[in-house]
Specification:
The chain has 332 residues and is α+β, with helices and mostly antiparallel strands. The chain has one domain: Endonuclease/exonuclease/phosphatase (Deoxyribonuclease I, Chain A, 4-Layer Sandwich). It is 28% helix and 27% strand. It has a 6-stranded mixed sheet, covered by helices on one side. Strand 14 and strand 15 form a beta hairpin. Helix 4 runs parallel beside helix 5. The longest helix is centred in the N-terminal third of the chain and has 31 residues. The radius of gyration is 19 Å and the shape is globular. About 5% of the residues have low confidence.
Length: 332
């Protein structure tokens, strides 16, 4: 345990110095970058330290078994800021950043106004769904690169079907720097863990809700990003993309390429692709290259898997149990 703690502290110290240089570089790159980078990341339980009587957030309070203190909360925000900076190292700050497992708008206010991310000038949106734990889906955006025209939360009718309520789907639309109107959907589908048939039904219901919204926008430029809690071969993607190919998956489907990338999440030492980015065919002319999985060494622990904030109830001080994705779009 002592060696592991020393190893983690050394990684943090080294990356803090690197992050300071990154922030300076990003300020320059953001003024001259031709392409716009978009990012998705499930940040794993970004909770504030205040009790919300309407949600089951008791495990993330200072007096809980996890001892979720203000110091740990601010360390988590700093970690998120460092990762966003690293993803944007080549292109400047990502124009859009979708985030999963965020408790409320206070967390995003602290992230965008009071963490190292404050220099990026992000505005933010967040859903207000019925999830029992209170976790939501958020979106950070830079107004100069994505001119917001509207947004809404799409309710997945889980409770009406006798299922556990799940997160809303965040739908935002606005204009890129190129002038193109783009619809963005950020999603966090119901979990697979211990849910069996009910979890599959709930994910299918979320997929149908997303598909209905997409069909109403046929012919528009659409980008969907999020944690689908499903591998690329899962039947829910046939439901989302449809037989008439409304959407195109940008995740690596070739087995050889997937072995090289491994995945975005690890459970019992098995890698999975649970996070995905999909686009409409109308978006394809703007897409530059393939979706990238951020496999930065500082995001991994000594076992080579995502360095989590907690392992069970034990605080690790890491980043998340998921790895981020990013995609570049033409800025022209």
């Amino acid at each position: 345990m002592k060696n592991t703690t020393h190893w983690n502290e050394r990684k943090n110290s080294m990356f803090l110095m690197r992050c300071a240089l990154l922030v300076c570089l990003l300020l320059v790159c953001s003024l001259s970058s031709e392409a716009q980078r978009l990012m998705w990341w499930n940040v794993e339980n970004l909770f504030d330290c205040k009790d919300d009587s309407q949600h089951e957030d008791e495990e993330f309070l200072p007096e809980s078994d996890r001892h979720w203190t203000l110091g740990r909360y601010w360390h988590k925000l700093d970690n998120i800021a460092r990762v966003v900076a690293a993803v944007g190292e080549e292109r400047g700050w990502p124009a859009l950043v979708g985030l999963g497992e965020v408790e409320n708008d206070s967390c995003l206010f602290d992230l965008t106004r009071r963490s190292p991310l404050r220099t990026a000038g992000y505005e933010f949106l967040i859903t207000e769904g019925p999830d029992k734990r209170g976790v939501e889906v958020g979106l950070l955006y830079q107004p100069e690169h994505f001119q917001m025209e509207g947004h809404e939360g799409l309710r997945v009718p889980s409770a009406e079907e006798g299922l556990r309520p799940t997160r809303d789907i965040l739908h935002a639309w606005g204009r890129l720097a190129s002038g193109d109107l783009m619809h963005v959907f950020a999603v966090h589908f119901p979990s697979r863990a211990g849910s069996g048939h009910e979890g599959n039904r709930n994910r299918l219901l979320a997929a149908q809700t997303l598909r209905k919204a997409i069909e109403s926008l046929r012919g528009e430029k659409i980008l969907v990003m999020g944690d689908f809690n499903a591998e690329p071969e899962d039947p829910i993607f046939r439901e989302i993309m449809g037989h008439d190919a409304l959407l195109v998956s940008l995740m690596p489907l070739d087995r050889k390429e997937r072995r090289k990338v491994r995945g975005t999440y690890v459970f019992q030492k098995q890698w999975s692709f649970l996070d995905h980015i999909l686009v409409s065919r109308e978006m394809m002319p703007l897409v530059r290259g393939k979706v990238q999985v951020a496999q930065f060494s500082f995001l991994l622990n000594e076992e080579g898997v995502p360095w989590r904030t907690y392992r069970g109830p034990v605080y690790q001080g890491g980043y998340s149990d998921h790895l981020p994705l990013w995609l570049d779009l033409s800025g022209e």
